[in-house]
Structure formats: C-alpha cells, structure tokens
C-alpha cells in the first residue's frame, strides 16, 4: 500500500507546463476554472500529438493523476498526456454540475448545461488550441464518477476511456451502462473501483454494475474492476489511479523482460510479425503512432539470434529503415544477417555503409568500423 502511495507522489519533473486559467462558458453562463498540464516534450516535438485526460473534480484529482502519469512517462510505461482538470469546489459546483432527472436518469438543468459545456465548448477549444491525439479519457469520483457515464449514453461515446472511482450511480445506470457497452461500435476502456471501507450505500450498486458488465461479451470492451481491502472512500482513489492508467495504456508499454521470456523467445518464428502487431495494436487502440523503441528492436533481434532465425533480420531492417531512416540501424541489421549466414563480404559492405550514418542506441561508428574489419579479415582473399 505504501509503495503505491509513494509511486503517485514520486516527484519527477516530466510536465513542464501547468497552468490554471478561467474558461468563459456560454453554455453555463459563467466562468469556470480549469487547470492544464502539458507534457515536457510538448514544445520540443511540434508534430507530436498527445492523448487527453479530462478530470472532473479537478481541484483534488489533478495532482494524484499528474503524479502517476509523471512517474509512468518517466519510465516510458505510460504515454505523455495532456491533463485538464475542471475545478468544481466553488459553492459545491460538483453537485449542481452532476444534476440529473430523478425519473429518466439523464442530465437536467445545470447538469445538462455542464454536459454541453464539456462536449460542445471545452473539448473543441482544447483540440483546437493543443495537439490532441484522437484518444480521450474522462475520470471522476463518486458524484462525478456517476455523471461521466452519461457520455456513454451517446450513440457514439464522446470518450474512449472512462475511469469511475467509487461511483454514485444515477437511476437505472446498473442496467443502462451494460446495455450501452453491449452495443459498442468502437473500442472503449471502462474502469471502476470500490473498497470494503467505501460508503456503504454506494457499494452494492457498484457491485451490481460490475456483475452486469461482466456479462457483456462485446470484444470492443476492455473492462477492469477493483475491490480494495482496507481502503476508504478517499484512499481508494490513490490505489485506483495507477491500475486504471495501466489498464488503458497496456498496449503502450515497451517490451519487458517478462514479455520477452514468456512470449517472444518461445515463438518458433514470426518475431518481426510480433513487433509489427504490437505497434499496430497501439495505433489501433490508442490512436498513437510512435517510432518503434530501440530497446524493442534489440529484444526482437535477441530472439532472432537466440532461435537462429537469421532471415528475419532482413524484415527487421525494413522496419528500422522506416522508423530511423538516417540512422545506421537498418544497415547494421542487414550486416548482422549476412554475418550470421556466412556471407562476410556482404556483411562488411553493410557495416561500412552503417559507419557513415547516424549513431543510435548502443550502435556506434567505432563498432561498425570494428565489425567491418572483422568481416574483412574473414573474407577469402583472391
């Protein structure tokens, strides 16, 4: 438990820009305060787009989400993300914002206005001003956790991922949410949590919703439920956040030693296909297109060498050329293929070409010169 708490508040400066500003809303006929956290790389990478996380109860949820994403992004386990917290602590705005009709269980009054504020004003503003990838997450706690489910009611859900912490459900949500998830036409991530120390009146409806969702067989749904022992209504938030983020961004993680040992190294063939499928899934699920990580290249290369599937190095070289066209990686992989298949002359040529290109990872010009000399010494003299 203590380790998770330390994880969330481990202070590493990944986000370089955090600002709080007023947002004039015509839908609400009022000014609302929002806090925006931009990733450290935002200014350095003008072509890069980032997922966006909208936080209800931003006044107290911003910092714990900020800390978890900081930590995950530092280790490249989680993608850098634009965080936007809507502050709702003034005059108990969170209750008015979450208002719904007690009969039909849909937003009404101020709640309907707040719904339009997020969908018709805030998101368009953010996506026009910032480089936002087409992957949206929304999160809330108790009252606002229940409210965020209204966005699922739309025929085309406004968000790709929902983080619902100790949910206070509106009427019929136990049935409506599973129905909507059953009829999904696009992938959706859904996370919810409670605990044995949670507010008693919330626990049973949450458990019922969990039971109903577990009956959903739609392959487009990625669902996770956590029930924490020994956590309160408030502390369960700190346990939930990393679990929710790692559920949603599972496909983003680089190849780990466990993944390599348990999955990749055991394959009889298709190592490069595994790598391609991994990044295709990332693009499909998270709408993110990132270069294949150097360490992932090295993991696939290691599996190829371990299993003596040397022709696959040529396929790996093609991917390297696409991802790092100015680097020596592609020619190095080709040189390695020729070296392992006994063609020292062609290997020497590829290593020589590689020595003229940019260094990358642990591949250096000196290493390529040495490889060239080694292949030259093994090449039969005429």
Distance between the termini: 70 Å
CATH architecture of the largest domain: 3-Layer(aba) Sandwich
What percent of residues adopt helix (DSSP H or I)? 40-55%
Oligomer: single chain
Please describe the biggest sheet, giving its number of strands, its sense, and whether it closes into a barrel. 8 strands, mixed
Domain count: 2
Secondary structural class = alpha/beta
- Give the count of helical stretches: 15
CATH topology of the largest domain: Rossmann fold
Number of strands: 8
| Rg | 25 Å
Question: Shape from CA axes?
Answer: elongated
Order of helices and strands: HEEEHEHHEHEHEHEHHHHHHHH
Strand order of the largest sheet: 1-2-4-3-5-6-7-8
CATH class of the largest domain: Alpha Beta
Please, what is the average pLDDT?
Answer: 94
Residue ranges: pLDDT <50 for 5 or more in a row?
1-15
Strand content: 15-25%
CATH superfamily of the largest domain: Alpha/Beta hydrolase fold, catalytic domain
């Amino acid at each position: 438990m203590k380790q998770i708490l330390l994880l969330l508040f481990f202070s590493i400066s990944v986000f370089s820009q955090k600002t709080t500003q007023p947002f004039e809303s015509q839908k609400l006929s009022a000014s609302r305060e929002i806090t925006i956290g931009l990733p450290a790389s935002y200014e350095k990478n003008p072509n890069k787009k980032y997922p966006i996380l909208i936080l209800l109860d931003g006044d107290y949820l911003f910092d714990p989400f900020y800390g978890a994403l900081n930590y995950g992004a530092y280790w490249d386990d989680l993608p850098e993300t634009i965080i936007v917290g809507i502050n709702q602590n003034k005059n108990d705005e969170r209750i008015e914002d979450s208002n719904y009709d007690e009969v039909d269980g849909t937003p009404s009054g101020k709640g309907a206005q707040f719904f339009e504020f997020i969908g018709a004003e805030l998101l368009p503003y953010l996506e026009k001003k910032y480089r936002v990838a087409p992957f949206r997450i929304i999160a809330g706690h108790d009252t606002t956790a229940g409210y965020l489910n209204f966005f699922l009611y739309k025929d085309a859900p406004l968000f790709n991922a929902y983080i619902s912490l100790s949910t206070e459900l509106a009427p019929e949500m136990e049935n409506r949410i599973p129905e909507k998830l059953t009829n999904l036409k696009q992938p959706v991530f859904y996370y919810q949590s409670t605990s044995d120390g949670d507010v008693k009146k919330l626990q049973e409806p949450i458990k019922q919703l969990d039971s109903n969702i577990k009956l959903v067989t739609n392959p487009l749904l990625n669902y996770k439920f956590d029930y924490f022992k020994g956590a309160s209504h408030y502390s369960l938030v700190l346990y939930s956040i990393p679990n929710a983020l790692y559920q949603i961004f599972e496909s983003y993680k680089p190849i780990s030693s466990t993944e390599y040992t348990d999955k990749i190294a055991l394959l009889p063939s298709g190592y490069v296909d595994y790598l391609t499928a991994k990044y295709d899934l990332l693009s499909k699920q998270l709408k993110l297109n990132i270069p294949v990580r150097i360490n992932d290249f090295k993991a696939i290369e290691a599996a190829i060498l371990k299993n003596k599937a040397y022709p696959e190095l040529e396929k790996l070289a093609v991917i390297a050329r696409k991802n790092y066209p100015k680097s020596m990686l592609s020619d190095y992989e080709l040189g390695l293929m020729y070296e392992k298949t006994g063609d020292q002359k062609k290997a020497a040529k590829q290593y020589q070409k590689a020595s003229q290109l940019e260094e990358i990872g642990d591949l250096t010009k000196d290493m390529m010169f040495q490889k060239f000399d080694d292949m030259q010494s093994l090449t039969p003299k005429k």
